[in-house]
Amino acid sequence: MNKLISALIFSAIATLSVNAFAAGPEAAAKPAAAAKSAVEDKLDINTASEEQLRDFHGIGEARAKAIIKGRPYKAKDDLVKKKIIPKGVYDKIKDNIIAKQAK
Predict the structure, then answer these.
(1) pLDDT at 43
(2) Residue 20 burial class via C-beta count within 10 angstroms: exposed 0-12, middle 13-18, buried 19 and up
(3) DSSP H stretches of helix in the chain
(4) Domain boundaries, the chain
(5) At what angle do helices 31-40 and 2-23 cross, to 10 degrees?
(6) What is the pLDDT of residues 1-24, one digit of tens each?
(7) Predicted TM-score of the model (pTM)
(8) Which residues of 45-65 are buried (b: 16+ CB within 10 A; e: fewer)?
(9) CATH code of the domain made up of 43-98
């Protein structure tokens, strides 16, 4: 159990470090803000830009454009139901996306 917790903490720190480095010196100067957004924020497939979508593992330019073209989505699993992305790709990103409904 302790090894699992240690591995999860190490993974989270490594991810945050890479994200802060890639975002530039402004993000590195505010590590608490980077940590907060990495944990709390999920990408809304109904409003995300093409660039934001391309940044997800398994989502390239063509899939990002297909996601945008298929909007709006009632639920995030609509990506699979509408055959926008394969189930394997969806399984990798599903915990990091949402499909908010317009008000």
Answers:
(1) 94
(2) buried
(3) 2-23, 25-28, 31-40, 50-54, 61-69, 78-81, 87-93
(4) 2-40, 43-98
(5) 110
(6) 556 555 545 555 655 544 444 444
(7) 0.60
(8) bbebeeeebbebeebeeebbe
(9) 1.10.150.320
Among 80, 84, 75, CA closest to 46: 75
Q: CA 35 to CA 83: how far, in whole Å?
A: 33
Of the candidates 51, 58, 64, the one whose C-alpha atom is nearest the C-alpha of residue 92 is 58
pLDDT greater than 60 at residue 47 = yes
Amino acid letter for position 103: K
**56-102 pLDDT, tens digit each:** 888 999 999 999 999 999 999 999 999 999 999 999 999 999 999 87
Residue 28 is predicted with a pLDDT of: 43
Q: Could you tell me which residues are beta bridge partners of residue 97?
A: 43
Which residue in 57, 54, 50 sits closest to 95, CA to CA? 57
44 is written with which tokens?
């809304």
